[in-house]
Amino acid sequence: MNSKEPRLPTLLKFYGKYLHNEITADFIQAVLSSYTVGTLERLAEHNDPNVRRAALMALGFLGDYSSNATVGRALTDIDRGVRLIAENNIRSLWMRVGTQEQRHRLEKIATKLKGKAFEESTQLATQLILEAPWYAEAYFLRSSAAMEQKDYERAIRDSHQALEINPYHFPAAMAMGQCYLKTGETIMALESFRRALRLNPNLEAVRTQVSYLERQLEEM
Question: 11-95: which CATH number, 1.10.1660.10, 1.25.10.10, 3.40.50.150, 1.10.275.10?
Fold first, then answer.
């Protein structure tokens, strides 16, 4: 054995066991016994892609919005597995901001939105924004309600604000692109979709949309 071979973190053993048995509680308990969130964030930029995958999976369970930049950068990682884990986990971090009561209200807004109670979800989101104007996800949910009500100008404003607060919010960039398409602003739509792709290169449907709009503009 090469004595100079770098020692990989124990986190990999925990991750391997989790992939085998898929018992989330055991994985979380094992990680908590040995690692802090700060250490996991550092490991998320390790030179070994398997370590990065393990760290990002752990952050998805244990991190909060303070880990947003770490997971956001991982969206453009050279390793596809890392990118997919980051994409699957980052939205949960966006919901873990503010007080417990504010998080509960955010979940209620999301539930109302899924239930197509657009007016109520808009009112609840507005109340939360007035109280906590730094709440990017509240702006995004209000934007989603506005899109459903075909109020595209308001949806664009709220999506833009979500991106101002959270520069990794690729769904907000996608939403802006869709709204600009609805209002006939093709160039702005293209720029919004390109922004979404820069944040998250895994968005194949958006990549297809970008190619289509580019061809459309060339033929004009």
Answer: 1.25.10.10
